[in-house]
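Backbone-to-sequence.
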């Protein structure tokens, strides 16, 4: 029976989604900091202003130029709302709204789309890391390309529910979590219940994840203790 009283679920990215130039800016934060500080220091020294003779405003200006890309990344939740920064962010930002009757998608390349659950069959991983997934109909026809930012709203083992998990929460009568994604992350694919012999047991998956995390932590602690004993013996 459909859970008609399940509250709608909104799936948004953990942080604003950048365009290609914005992604490049994120990756260049540290190199920009190092190279800009070196370049500005060399330029000011060549102009007859060595480090010991620079006043506070000059030093603050150098630091501000160096940390500018990092500041843009940190302030992105605020900047994404300002029209002057459209060159940095995808428009519209991806989002999904799930209720008991349909899913409403807001996609950067497709705009707003709505699909009734009867028209949806599965969400399949494309096979490329960070490449997103494909929403397909019951007969396998492609409905939409779903960006990875809402397939995995918050990457990591201890994180927000994936889009697939949210779908199964809203329509457990129709869908189950599928195992087609070769990833250590949270289950991110779903399929029709009558087409999956054995869906992902989320409780068992979380139990295995916790055991692995505890084992890794224990090994790290053991290595730290052994290293400390060898260092201070």
């Amino acid at each position: 029976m459909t859970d008609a009283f399940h509250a709608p679920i909104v799936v948004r990215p953990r942080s604003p989604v950048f365009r290609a130039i914005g992604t490049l800016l994120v990756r260049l934060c540290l190199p920009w900091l190092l190279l800009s500080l070196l370049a500005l220091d060399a330029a000011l020294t060549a102009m007859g202003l060595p480090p010991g003779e620079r006043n506070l405003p000059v030093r603050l200006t150098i630091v501000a130029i160096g940390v500018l890309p990092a500041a843009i990344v940190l302030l992105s939740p605020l900047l994404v709302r300002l029209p002057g920064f459209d060159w940095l962010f995808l428009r519209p930002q991806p989002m999904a709204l799930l209720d008991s009757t349909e899913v409403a998608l807001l996609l950067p390349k497709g705009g707003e789309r709505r699909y009734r659950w009867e028209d949806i069959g599965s969400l399949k991983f494309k096979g490329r890391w960070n490449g997103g997934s494909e929403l397909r109909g019951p007969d396998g026809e492609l409905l939409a390309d779903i960006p990875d930012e809402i397939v995995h709203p918050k990457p990591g083992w201890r994180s927000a529910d994936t889009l697939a998990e949210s779908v199964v929460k809203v329509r457990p009568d129709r869908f189950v979590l599928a195992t087609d994604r070769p990833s250590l992350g949270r289950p991110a694919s779903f399929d029709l219940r009558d087409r999956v012999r054995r869906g992902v047991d989320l409780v068992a998956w979380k139990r295995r994840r916790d055991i692995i995390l505890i084992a890794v932590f224990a090994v790290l602690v053991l290595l730290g203790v052994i290293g400390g004993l060898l260092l201070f013996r």
